[in-house]
Amino acid sequence: MVLASPKPIRNETILPSDVIPIVDLKGERCEVIKQIVKASEEYGFFKVINHGISDETIDKMEEAGFNFFAKPMSQKKQASPAYGCKNIGFNGDIGEVEYLLLNANTSSIAQISKTISNDDPNFRYRVSSYTEAVKEVACEILELMAEGLGVPDTKVFSSLIKDIESDSVLRLNHYPPKDKSHSNNVGFGEHSDPQILTILRSNDVSGLQISLQHGLWIPVNPDPSALCVNVGDVLEVMTNGRFVSVRHRAMTNSYKTRMSMAYFGAPPLNASIVAPPVLVTPHRPSLFRTFTWADYKKATYSLRLGDTRIQLFRANMS
Ligand SMILES: C=C1C[C@]23C[C@@]1(O)CC[C@H]2[C@@]12CC[C@H](O)[C@@](C)(C(=O)O1)[C@H]2[C@@H]3C(=O)O
Ligand SMILES: O=C(O)CCC(=O)C(=O)O
Ligand SMILES: [Fe+2]
Q1: Concatenated DSSP letters for 68-109?
Q2: Residues 291 and 273: beta-carbon distance below 8 Å
Q3: Quick one: pLDDT at residue 32?
Q4: With CB atoms 3.0 to 4.6 Å apart as the test, which of 8, 163, 172, 230 could cross-link to 12 if both were Cys?
Q5: Which pLDDT score, from 0 to 100, does residue 7 have?
Q6: Helices and strands, number each (H, E), in the chain
Q7: Nearest to 46 by CA among 27, 62, 65, 59
Q8: What per-residue confidence (pLDDT) applies to 5?
């Protein structure tokens, strides 16, 4: 069966997907660092393979997700506001998606497990194992990034998401198929992720697209054995604009259900978001003013999904 490629909306162009960098994390270290830095500067997006998370950890998490979304609506709604259907956030954004949005710390996972799985130890264990594993990968990548940028303290980014108070979240997005006659094939509309780094894994169904320029979309080929890495807004700020946060969206597939599992590595609420001194020079003065993650989160949640909230924190903005 030949799957139709996504339909361009209005004047949009869909480009071929083979430009997306794929980094082999088991490759030669200097080469890996170079590739990660280049991809983060040019795209704010790349895929990693040989990431070290076991198939079992991924498959069990995926199964827990599919089991949850297969429940009757009345049961899923008991998990609200962690569970949502079609609404994205609180400001009127909608999409052809249902989701489960969990705080990624262990006690919150235990707490929500009581509501959504009658405290099924399997559910709790699967979510914590996956979250811990994916956090490790995020930290490894952030340390390679810092090294590649010449930052002396290579843990400057990773320590924020390792912090016990880290505000990281895990989101499962479930996109039922929508046939092409359906007027809206947008599952999750265009946006950038506000946090530091997102690690996203999906099943073998296409849908994710990234945008480098307004109206030009690059589809990301699905690869269940790879992880997609998105530079988030906070990392753009903490690299003083060297890395760019990627704008992306997810389309529904005409035939198959898609499920993505996204880990958003975030700082603690009170952490100051500021670039390390080595990235701020007379030739490259600070592009952003100093703020806390709580400030950024507040701005994020007061705005629409597609808004470029990072602009509010530019150094020359009042
Ligand atoms: C419309 C919104 C949903 C969102 C919060 C926001 O006000 C703007 C950013 C959205 C986003 C995108 C990335 C993540 O999926 C998310 C959890 C996040 O941190 O920012 C969502 C927020 C959400 O769904 O609550
Ligand atoms: O489902 C996807 O591939 C994208 C989801 C996404 O961008 C998000 O959850 O922020
Ligand atoms: Fe996203």
Answers
A1: HHTS-HHHHHTTTTTEEEEEETTTTEEEEEEEEEEE-SHHHH
A2: yes
A3: 98
A4: 8
A5: 55
A6: 8, 15
A7: 27
A8: 47
The pLDDT assigned to 9 comes to 63
Burial class (CB in 10 A: 0-12, 13-18, 19+), 8: exposed
The β-bridge relationship of strands 93-103 and 169-175 is antiparallel
Cα gap 14→17, rounded to integer Å:
9
Going from the Cα of 201 to the center of ligand 3, the distance in angstroms, rounded, reads 12
Distance, in Å, from the CA atom of 129 to the CA atom of 114, rounded to the nearest integer, reads: 17
Give, using CA atoms, the residue closest to atom 25 of ligand 1: 89
Kindly state if the Cβ of 171 falls inside 6 Å of ligand 1.
yes
Residue 3 has pLDDT above 60, yes or no: no
CA–CA gap between residue 166 and residue 135 (Å, rounded): 11
Nearest to 290 by CA among 277, 275, 301, 304: 275
Buried-exposed string 253-262: b where 16+ CB fall within 10 A, e elsewhere: bbebebbbbb
Task: Give residue for tokens 């709790």.
Answer: 124
Specify which of 81-95, 140-154, 166-180 reaches the highest per-range mean pLDDT. 140-154
The residue contributing the CA closest to ligand 1 atom 24 is 89
Report the pLDDT averaged over residues 120-149. 95
Cα–Cα distance measured from residue 118 to residue 100, given in angstroms and rounded to the nearest whole number: 16
Q: Is the CB of 262 under 6 A from ligand 2?
A: yes
Q: Is the pTM of this model over 0.80?
A: yes
**Ligand 2 proximity of 186 Cβ (cutoff 6 Å):** no
Give residue 187 CA to ligand 1 midpoint distance, Å: 14
89 lines ligand 1 (CB under 6 A): yes
Counting from 1 in the atom list of ligand 1, the atom nearest the Cα of 84 is 24
C-alpha to C-alpha distance for 89 and 261, rounded to whole angstroms: 17
Largest CA distance in the chain: 59
pLDDT tens for each residue of 56-90: 999 999 999 999 999 999 999 999 999 999 999 99
ipTM: 0.99
Q: 181: pLDDT confidence band, cut at 50, 70 and 90?
A: confident
Which residues are part of the catalytic machinery?
A: 258
